[in-house]
Amino acid sequence: MPGQQDTLRVPAYRDGLKAESGGPYQDRLNIIYAALAACPAKGRIGAKMSYNIAIDGPAGAGKSTIAKKLAKKLGYVYVDTGAMYRAIALFLLREKVQPQDTDSILAKCTGADVTISYQDGEQIVLLNGENVNGLIRTEEVGNMASNSSAVPAVRDRLRSLQQELAANENVIMDGRDIGTCVLPDADVKIFLTADSAVRARRRFEELAAKGTPEPLEKIEKDIIERDARDRNREISPLKQAEDAVLVDTSEMTIDEVVEAILEICRKKGCI
Question: Are residues 160 and 252 both part of a single domain?
């Protein structure tokens, strides 16, 4: 129905999308097919310049991991908008700006020149010409990004670059407001989510693997607080677009999530 959100709450399934009728996973697959049946298909009609897939969701839902795998499978350009906001956050931290100091964020953000380039298919985020890919994944930077991204001047600086990329390339773009603000006409919109405890555990394991562990309880507390900031900010809050498909990844493997979204893309005509 017009204006109705498509919802895809998929529990874990082990045989992908190929379970035989009546098999042990048929009920779970029916959830997927029912959601897809409610999605209006978009065919490749006319001389469309590019196709866009928007993936939104809270921190730790798996957006970047899933988007990268989808981009590789589809041959699309992956645009990590969160990394762009983190680059500005890194600049602000270097300038000794406090996360809650909106006036200082507004005054200092103009000194951050953020651009992106691609090397061997990998997005490289450049902050004033410096490759900062290896510096922007800390919890401190993430928390600053959550605060600074609520400042309109920060979002305005990056939105035009993101939209320019999407106008000229087939892109998969992930973030907090891609389907609602940055690419409101995206061909496919996905809202990834997961339970906060699951997201905290994923982040805990990620940081431990990098040799920069944080206490699990602190990570979950930060995630919950960040969710609240992202959802309640006045400018571009985190929310599911009306025409987005909700995918709960709490009990899904990475490959299962990728295959479920590929099936949505097939239905929408992007494959």
Answer: no
